[in-house]
Amino acid sequence: MRRENRVAIKGQGPGWLQGVLARLRGGPAVDPTGLPLPPARLRRHRGYVSLQFVRGQTQSRMAAGDPDRLLVDYTRSMLAALLWQPRPARIGIVGLGGGSQVKFLHRHVAQARLEVVENHPGVIALRRDFGIPDDHARLEVVLDDGARFIAARPGRYEVLLVDGYDAAGIPPALSTPAFHAACRDALVPGGVMASNLHGADPEPRIRRLRDAFGADRVLVVEEEKMSNRVAFAWTGATPDGGDACIAAVDAALTGEARRELAVAIERIAQALRRRGAGPCAN
């Protein structure tokens, strides 16, 4: 189904329409479950476009002159999930934000259909300000509760990216054992989830990932220049991170994408090699 210039609305709770209308009026928004949300603000400053819920706290950032470039290190690290699935047919994304990963994947992973869930109508309303393409056969942005959206899609994704944050951090609905189990169940056999963990104490969420996927199918790496960690969790064999793994990813990407992801791919591949795992997917 093709949708142009409008938001896909599926399975919404009673509050979604009020949230959209409030956004259009410039008033407070509510999420699809009816909970109040802070306004989504756009800030343009010194060649950058930023998304903010709280002044001085940036949720997402884009270079105005290079809108498809991944500016933040952890966004590149998360895309090292391609080591598990170099040619995914369907990618699920929890959290639209400024759409940096959505735009990158849309441009450079041409065979993949992207299904994005965002719970903030104000964020979706800003998608054109961030250069996010309109919905079409390969891209759909859905206004819904992320946990509900994922739970309704078992066995669907080769790759699942989870980067859903509000002004206070990771929302409670995206931190429960049930959500992590739903993420596991949303993957096809051999699928992989990559999650951004930001905050002072990521250990509870890491434990829930290990409980859901098994300790031998969770890899956590730190971002050297940031307070983020990126966690990978998967449902099949563990790739060994060797030359064949990297070559499979390189063969699936455009030259521009290979250059942009090269450091992150090698770093995660090294972490996999230290585990001494099995063969890679093709």
Core attributes:
25% strand; 13 strands; single chain; alpha/beta; three-stranded antiparallel β-sheet; 9 helices; eight-stranded mixed β-sheet; 282 residues; disordered N terminus; globular
CA radius of gyration? 18 Å
Give the strand order of the largest sheet, numbering strands 1, 2, ... along the chain: 1-9-8-7-10-11-13-12
**Fraction of residues in H or I helices:** 25-40%
Shape: globular
**H/I helix tally:** 9
The major pleated sheet works out as: 8 strands, mixed
Order of helices and strands: EHEEEEEHEHEHEHEHEHEEHH
Determine the strand fraction and express it as a percent band.
25-35%
Distance between the termini: 30 Å
Q: What is the subunit arrangement here?
A: single chain
Label the structural class.
alpha/beta
Low-confidence stretches: 1-26
In total, the number of strands is 13
Q: What's the overall average pLDDT, rounded?
A: 86
What can you see in these coordinates?
The protein is an alpha/beta fold and 282 residues long. The protein contains 9 helices and 13 strands. It has helices spanning 16-25, 73-78, 100-108, 121-125, 146-151, 177-186, 203-213, 243-252, 255-275; strands at 8-9, 29-30, 36-37, 41-45, 48-54, 57-63, 90-94, 113-118, 139-143, 157-162, 187-198, 218-222, 228-234. The chain has an 8-stranded mixed beta sheet, sandwiched between helices. It has a 3-stranded antiparallel beta sheet with strand order 4-5-6, with no helix packed on it. Strand 4 (41-45) and strand 5 (48-54) form a beta hairpin. The protein is globular. The two termini are 30 Å apart.
